[in-house]
């Protein structure tokens, strides 16, 4: 089975992994099942939730280390690579990466020919700061047969800088393994959409880029997850729909990734990227600017 | 009548100005009527739509010049200042500013003691580029008795850098005179909310800042406007509601501006501003980064 290059069918898998080393095997099987289902439905790019093969809410550094693996030479990447080759597809997963004495929350991209690259989450959420090291390799975009694929992880989307940088680096699509936890109320608006889903749609809109976000569901050690996985078009609006908060599902979208390289049809005078006032943005960096009153 | 300092009642006025020098007087009266209504309802900070005293869709540079005035010594700022003194309120308006041979699309802030400051729109939309000069004074935040007030105009919100910079400069609330024109379909989602309203709510959320956006309505020389004025809380969600696309209305919100100086209650480890990875953001500026494939 050979996936199309353009349009490519993108899939985001939303389900409930379970933390605990005793669940590693079951998680691995659950992930494999979603990948097979999506690939057999024709998906050429499949995105998994954050830490889908391990679960998310660790209770200690020791436990986080017990769930860790090497990248690329660990069990998850090897499994993703085997499936990617079998289905001629691209897969974005996310694992607890061990590098010596350091752990990273790492998104990985594999393709039909094996491991392509990784992104170590740069903005850490809550207790992740207790076991993970903030990403030390910056932001990455990988050129593939189906297009240029950028990677972010979960809480990164709260920082508009991240999607901006990745799209400035040329991403056609940003793939975001995610474990959005319950935020302060209101969690959802009247449409059942949570704030981070809107962070995703607006980031796609202002950057003219596709974004495929796979979130998890369920509750783990008292931490609730929000679902709302989605694939946003370059105009920002969700393609098809936003997944419900508790749904075990896979969403699909057939997208022409070249749309991300074409300026949106606003008018003859505007282009979102060209119109940036980079001459004025040095104030964003927190240096060279007036002293901050905060 | 003395407006409260905290909480302060914020008002955004949504209505339909009409372009054409023959309408300047009627626009001025329409603006004065909204300011009086809002101030008499207790508003201490009143935001008007973009170019509310002139209308928006000019057909030539000559016509734009005919609508222009000096800042601060022009008719609109003088009128705003007179009303601000009468009601002990702060007013954010937006005028065609003439400075020698240059025109700017300029937001102005006046208070009970007169003119405070201006912001010349830095990101110009469509035919604005044919008559206006891009703002040459960067971004501004003004310290007032009711709190720190930042200014942006309309299309600026498409650039996440703008709200980020203004909030980094310490704004408690960002006031945005706006004339959102119809964007490519879909214009609104199933809730009747347009994409730029979401750009506003998400900008408030990720920056932990209030945003008061006053949009206009109606159609001018074939250009349609989107309404959807709103006041977003620091959690991003609209306070009260989002105005309809055709409503002639004033929305109010009683806000405690100090909330913008207090980190949101996420957890004990995260703070949206502190957690920024400014060590990695130089890629946003378009220099110092890898060559861009775009």
What does this protein look like?
- 2 copies of one chain form a homodimer.
- Helices cover 21% and strands 24% of the residues of chain A.
- Chain A has 294 residues and is α/β, with parallel strands linked by helices.
- Chain A has one domain (8-269): Nitrilase/N-carbamoyl-D-aminoacid amidohydrolase (4-Layer Sandwich).
- Chain A has a 6-stranded mixed sheet. A 5-stranded mixed sheet of chain A has the order 6-7-8-9-12, covered by helices on one side. Chain A has a two-stranded antiparallel ribbon with strand order 10-11.
- In chain A, helix 5 (160-168) packs parallel to helix 6 (195-207).
- The longest helix of chain A has 17 residues, at 24-40.
- At the A-B interface, helix 5 and helix 6 of A face helix 5 and helix 6 of B.
Q: Helical content of chain A, roughly?
A: 10-25%
CATH class of chain A: Alpha Beta
**What Rg of chain A, in angstroms, do the CA atoms define?**
18 Å
Instruction: Give the end-to-end Cα distance of chain A, rounded to a whole number of Å.
Output: 56 Å
Categorize the overall geometry of chain A.
globular
Find the count of extended strands of chain A (DSSP E, 2+ residues). 13
Q: What is the makeup of the main sheet of chain A?
A: 6 strands, mixed
């Amino acid at each position: 089975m050979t996936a199309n290059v353009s349009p490519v069918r993108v899939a985001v898998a939303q389900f409930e992994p379970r933390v605990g080393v005793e669940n590693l095997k079951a998680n691995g099987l659950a992930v494999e099942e979603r990948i097979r289902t999506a690939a057999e439905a024709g998906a050429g790019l499949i995105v998994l939730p954050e830490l889908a093969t391990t679960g998310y809410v660790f209770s200690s550094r020791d436990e986080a280390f017990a769930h860790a693996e090497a990248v690329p030479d660990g069990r998850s990447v090897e499994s993703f690579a085997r499936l990617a080759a079998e289905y001629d597809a691209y897969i974005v997963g996310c694992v607890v990466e061990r590098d010596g004495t350091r752990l990273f929350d790492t998104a990985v991209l594999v393709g039909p020919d094996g491991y392509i690259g990784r992104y170590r989450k740069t903005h850490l959420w809550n207790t992740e700061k207790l076991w993970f090291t903030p990403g030390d390799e910056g932001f990455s975009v990988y050129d593939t047969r189906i297009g240029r694929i950028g990677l972010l992880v979960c809480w990164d989307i709260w920082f508009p800088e991240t999607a901006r940088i990745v799209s400035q680096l040329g991403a056609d699509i940003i793939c975001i393994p995610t474990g959005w936890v319950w935020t302060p109320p209101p969690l959802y608006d009247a449409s059942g959409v949570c704030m981070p889903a809107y962070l995703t749609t607006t980031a796609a809109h202002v950057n003219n880029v596709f974004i495929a976000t796979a979130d998890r569901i369920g509750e783990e050690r008292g931490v609730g997850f929000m679902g709302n996985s989605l694939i946003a078009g370059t105009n920002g609006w969700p393609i098809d729909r936003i997944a419900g908060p508790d749904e075990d599902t896979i969403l699909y979208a057939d997208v022409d990734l070249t749309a991300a390289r074409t300026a949106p049809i606003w008018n003859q005078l505007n282009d979102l990227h060209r119109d940036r006032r980079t001459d004025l943005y040095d104030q964003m960096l927190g240096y060279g600017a007036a002293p901050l009153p905060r």
